[in-house]
Fold these 2 entries.
Entry 1:
Amino acid sequence: MGITTLVLFGFVLALLAPWLYRVGRRATGWILATLPLMQLMYFASFVRPIAQGEVFVFGSAWVPSLKTSLSFFLDGLSLIFALLISGIGALVVIYAGGYLAGHHQLGRFYGYLFMFMASMLGVVLADNVIALFVFWELTSLSSYLLIGFDHEREAARRAALQALLVTGVGGLALLAGLLLLGQVGGSLELSTLLSQGEMVRTHHLYLPILLLVLAGAFTKSAQFPFHFWLPSAMEAPTPVSAYLHSATMVKAGVYLLARLSPVLGGSDSWHYLVTLAGAVTMLVGATLALFQTDLKRLLAYSTVSALGILTLLIGLDTTLSIQAAMVFLLAHAFYKGALFLVAGAVDHETGTRDVTQLGGLRQVMPITAVAAGLAALSMAGLPPLLGFISKELLYEAKLQAPRAAPLITGAGVLANVLLVAVAGIVGIRPFLRERTATPKNPHEAPPSLWLGPVMLAGLGFIIGLLPNTVAAPLVSPAVTAVRAEPTEVTLALWHGLNPVLLLSVLTLASGVGVYFGRGVVRRATSRLEPITHWGPARWYDVALDGMNALARAQTRLLQSGYLRYYLLMIIGTTVGLTAYTLAARGGFPRPHGFADVRFHEVGVAALIFLAAVTAVRARSRLAAVAALGVVGYGVALVYVLFGAPDLAMTQVLIESLTVILLVLVFYHLPRFASLSPQRARYRDAVVAVAAGGLMTALVLVAASMRFHPPISHYFAENSFVRAHGRNIVNVILVDFRGMDTLGEITVLALAGIGAYALLKLRLEKKEGG
Amino acid sequence: MESLGINYRAIGPELVLTVTGVLVMLLEAFSPGKKVRDGILAAAGIVLAGVAALALWEEGPVTAFSRMVIVDGFRVFFTLVILLGTLLTIFVSWGFLDEERIPPGEYFALLLFGAVGMTLLVAGNDLMILFLALETITIATYVLAGYRREDLRSTESALKYFLLGAFSSAFLLYGIALLYGATRTTNLAEMARVVSGPLGQAEIVLLMAGAAMLLIGFGFKVTTVPFHVWTPDVYEGAPTPVTAFLSTAPKAAGFAAFLRVFSLTFPPLGIESAADQLASHWVAAVTAMSILSMTFGNFIAIAQTNIKRMLAYSSIAHAGYVLIGVLARDWAAVAFYMLVYTIMNLGCFAIVALWARRGDERVLIAEYAGLGFRQPLLSFPLAIFLVSLAGFPGTAGFVAKFWLFKSAWGAGFPELVIIGVLMTVVSVYYYLYVVIVMFFREPKEEVPRVPLSRAFVAAMVVALVGVFYLGLLPTRVFAVLNTAQNLLAIGQR
């Protein structure tokens, strides 16, 4: 079975899940978990070859003319993510079956979850950047569906949309960045692009590419100032928070940064931007976490902080920091996943997630308590857990940071101190002390609910004891892939007495201090609370409201519903556009030929002008129609004077018919009731004069050109010779323009029949009624 | 006769459509009210016209009727898009004809005559043909827009449409006259030859003014800001199946004419020529129109509460995107976009029409609440079409937009692409809003069951298959279009 099939099969299962649930009911979760387990085993089979330095590319053309292919690429970095996605995926699918047991839309939930799982695998495995983007947006979309799963609640809907908009917009920035990158690097395949780093970094488009890609990665991985959507996303059911918003999806941004660091990394702008964003996020997340009392929001803010740490490490861009990042990635996925699942189980059993109301749960939920304890200790960084190893590496990397090492280390220690306190609040406190009253009477969670936390926390423990089981097969290839150079990694619990260990002890001690003194800390900083109202979340609201207000204002302005304003707008634009083109051409050519204007021509022109003015000024419809008729006949006269009798005939006939029809119609209309106000009339006059003036100007320009000899000469010369007629007008009408005349007669006849039919219908109606 | 270039095959699709239209109309006069018979006949005529169009595929660029009509891949593809739009409209109108007691023959005949105008517009190689074709389209559509005579909204919108349309036609005709004055020809191929050299000062002025007027006329037909003002009112007021038709097939035809005249006849040549002088102006004007359409269309769409008005503004916004393709002078990208747009928009409107019931009673977005899982056969397709309109990956809307933007980027319009992408983001908001209302809002009253006709199901199947086929496996259609594009390029030389 190919990798393409395996990824795409997730989408098929997503479609089938609701139906499977109807058949499988309670067992569905266990059955469905076989797919991620199969994927896990499949990917596990790659561990050995990849550890030996192999890289796999699987390709199939998709839309070759747009250079888009559905190709996949598996190296150490993809592999570590793929294993996490499928492994934790299997546990979460089982967990969801217990957590949402009896929910009437559980089938649909599985559908969304599998859609996410397949898309997420697509993100970390895609070779083609367009395919990567497609999967990237699909994870945003499935995250939207999952956050809004409890759609009866307004808060859930709001959070879902917020997450979608923030990550979706970032995704589009990413698309732009990737396309630019593809253009600069000459390929849309990541496997090819990875070796183009030197060229990309020196290209003048490097900075735009970097900023666009970072916008995508930072929004997805909830980096400051885009971090606000992640805590809101806690409206999602807990399995979703554990899976998407802690272990996998939010790490897509981190994956992308790591993936592209051989291409985009290594420059000053990369170093400063990524490190700074990471450091700020790390501190902001850890600080805000301390203020929360809701278990999930506590975890969410600590996840934000952890994502900041990962970003910071990638920004440091040393072999040591990448190594730390990869180990921390694993450690965090294990302990945070476990803690989220524990929080869900606690919520499920007690009916509350408020940490101030929870206590003594170890007596009733012993298995969950053990898992929670292990995970919390790993989070706090206590030996012999994986969290300890990762924190040691972290400090080591920070101490050896190429720039501003003391500052970065200081910030890191501060954040970790806060996280130790948070670990105590979420993982230890609810299980110790006295039992408190909770909305529901808790029991030990069913196996589906404790299996996940126990497995994850257990992994953190076992790997902590035997770190080299993952060091060579998983961490080394991943670091190799990110650094684009072979790297050997060995991990150990004991590094000897060194500054790093000292920092660890200091962190732990201060963390415990903060834990017990958290009341004091909270009170001291509560005065800063008003500032948070002006945080980025507020700006998101302002932007959204602003967009709505702008839309309404535009509608009022442009879409009044009045025909006269529409006409004004169209005529105004026409005059503006045409006059501009004329002016841009440097004025009008001078018209000539005014010298030989004859008296009766002036008379006709005056007649037309007067009739037009009368039509506008007339107070009754009939008078206006009659005046318009005069304009038409005047034009016919002009045709006659300039030797176009055929045109004149048509004009006269059409004019007569129009006047008759108008009179017939107007006969049934009421008198003018309201005339437009004086000011509107002035405005209309200005527009009308401008339009008329423009037409006049154009006619004058056209008149200055003569490229055919006047056709009247031809008629005069040939009417007797070729058509054997003495009356020139007759000859033109029936001979030279014979077909035209026939056509005109037909049209008029049809119009006449139409008018007759209308009149007849009216008469019949009157008789009938 | 040979010298006049009379070649009936070259207007085969138009002939078939005209004959079918007349036949349907006559049948209606002598034995009225037979919807199934007339509908099948009209559909058969359209399919036959499609066959006639496909038969022209291999002909390569040739002209007929004194070079008034052209046969090339461009025309054949757009003709097929128009025919598909018309065919789907017949399906979409099925239930509506009974509800409103409209004489079916008359209605189908008008659709067919409109389609004749559109296919002729696409085939026109002469400004006079273009004008004739445009008038044929508009007269048929004026009547269609005002079909619900007893409804004030419908009548008002038809009147507005008619008056503003007459204005724009006048501008168009005036523009044609000025262009004739400048180049001494109305034939597009001849005109392209004339403007590829230098022209006198007066001629340039006329050329500019004429092109500006033409731009206004076309701008009106393809609903770009600021000539879009009629669109929301007419789309709202016209019966929904007619709105579906108006927003797709005539627009495809309008863009085809737009491309023919501006992209192919007045291209920026890069050498000292009248065409180049003109191009710098029309490119600037069309850029402005495109930006305005994208921004106004998308932003105003957000504020709409009526789904038909929302789709009207979305249609304006899409016209803005397509103009980017016109600027990039990539007709194949535009043709593909119009194909996709026709399919997804007609799909949307089919559901809107069905849900609106008689007299367009249910057209507020709020009235879609609770549709989600109670009427999955309506809500899921509608969600898919809306998501495709928003350009989500996996749907045809994404591929179409991607191609358009990619080609514009390559042609040197990065700023338009950036605005386009940003506006796409804005559009996600209002498209998804409908989806949210459908799935996540509880209805105020009981959601009634709407019976689905076979014609509706057929339209849904065609549109859904289209959205996914073109969204996932567009390669074949791309290949066909690229071949046609290459042939046209050879023909132009």
Entry 2:
Amino acid sequence: MRKSIFTLLVIIMSLPAQAKLQVVATAPNLGMLASAIGGEHVAVEVLAPPDRDLHYLEARPSMMAQLRNADLVVSVGADLEAGWLPVAIQNAGNAGIRGGQPGYFSGAQHTDLIQTNQAADRSQGDVHTKGNPHFYLDPVRMAEVGNALADRLSELDPGNGSDYRARAQGFQSEVNARMTEWHERTEDAPGVLLYHKDADYLMERLDVTILGYLEPLPGIAPTGKHLSGLVQDLKGKQAVVLYTDFQPSRAAEFIQRQLGWPHHQLSSQVQPGSDQKAYFELIDRWVEAISR
Amino acid sequence: MNTRQRLTPILAVSLLNAPAWAQQGNSTEDTSPLIINGNQFNPAISVILDGIYGNFSRKTDAPAGFGEGNEAEHGDHGNEEHGHGVEEGFQLRETEVAISGSIDPYLDASVTAAIGDEGVELEEAYVLTTALPAGFRIKAGKFLSDVGYINRQHPHSWDFVDQPWMRKFLFGDEGLNETGVQLAWVAPTAQYTRLGVEILEGENEGVANQLGDVEPGLEASTGPRLVTAFATYAPNLGYDHALQLGISGGFTDAFQQRHEHEGNVEILQGDSWFAGVDTVYKYDAPGPGGRGDFKLQAEYLIRARDLEFQEFTPNNDHFDAVGTPQTLRPKQDGAYVQGLYAIAGRWDAGLRLDAIGMANKVFEGTEREEAGTSFRYTGQLSYSPTEFSRFRTQLAYLDPDQGHAGGPSENAWQFMLQYNLSLGAHGAHRF
């Protein structure tokens, strides 16, 4: 009896040493990136489901429980999670994952953002003054962020540093290989009309023209006046309307009736727990929709 | 000034800028001008604007057992006239200014002030530790206690124009808002578990009333006088569902009351305790715009006192005791349950049931008073064009206990319109 208790104690005490690095990602796409770079050395949890708007989540108790035990938080940044991540971290009781600590990583800090010169004025909608945060649909930027993430993981877990860097380079090579094909497929794409500014990075990467947005201003639901204006301006042109699974379809259907443009509802995030293959398939679906 | 002197503060600013919560992209860092910008160190500031229109079918009294004579001296006197209450006609509720930020790598601070007709009132002003190990956190200053669920919420977070009767009449208009210290601990478990204790000055009119040294007979106790404890548990139910369960309570041995009655003075002092349970369930519907989201919230709170009663009569420049001291044990409770449903994106409808005085053991002098349960039924509909603005309409039907010794309380309708707007820093989406 005594011996078995001792054995149990030894097992319990040796657990932390064997444990994987606990990574908590805000968005599923960043969870995918953490898994792709961390491999078997990390255990990844994702705070946000793929089909919800990352702007509007609440700091739920379950998030704080996940953050309490995290070694590293991987966030999008640029204020995308401003409503819930700071308060969740503040209440999680984990000093290691606060902003500025090695345990806090924001992707937006490690890639060039676009649309950075936004006036800090909410009469212009829900603007992000630090730039457009939705870089996660641009595979090239994801590879850049992946390299930075590999550096951060190496800092936290130096023993596996070369593994992390090799995986990040592997991810980058795969992106580079696929970019050629994605470029070819979208070469003659007519252009897109987006619901929100959440696919701008991908369109810029693929040189696809954005003809406009269904939202009159970021975060403001489409209005009849704005949609009629779009129809007036875009009459005679050709494009596809793209929106994500948490954005309503009514405005896109209106454009289809008025201009005859096809519309596609697409996921902007992979399922939590996905590998990089799922992410490339996600981009494939966007490329497919753009090029039709 | 030589070059070196000029560069030093610039260097300091650029070094200190980096680790702030601000998640700065490379591009913003590249373009940020190298000048000393005071605003960069300013904390996050937000202002809440809260305007109301009220129209009531008749003037209402406080529910039986919670009106004048039963409450502390500065408690509610019948109609709901100050603080977070609502009057008839147009009115601005307190305009709330909230300021928060990091003091240094070890402390965060938050200040909330309410600007009202009576000037500026400090609602909260506290510091929070950020670097304690093992899941511990200390909060110190003036703050809304973490007992229960709705107690810590400011009016702009309420799902109705007004607060539940339970909070208003058992704790008072401002809830349990005290000066003191809180120690909280988040357990390292997969299921969220949070435990905490608070040591508070003890000034709350509902559960820890303190008048100090007052002739005749009341003796001041030095603070802290009130101790509270709470436990919160939330199982992990996945992305769509969330449930939180809480239990809390508090105790003071320095509760005081004083009433003047037909020229005589009645004093009561002794122990007071309270206990409560709370639960919140939220369903986050998949799909566009939050339609179908649902929230159910319920709380129960009981407060009890064990007081020594003594009556005095004035005699020239002093008081004479009347009769011998007696022990009185008043006990009162309250509960509410409310549901909120997003009938469309940006639109939500809510229903609330208030019940107060299921236990309603109160005294008029030393006489047990007949007081029963009062009910209120409230419905609200609100529209939020953006997450920074909300417009609400609310209708309530008050069904108070009729057998109140303090005069007849009659049924009443209350209609309210409200706008609730947030200006400035992005507010936190708390659970």
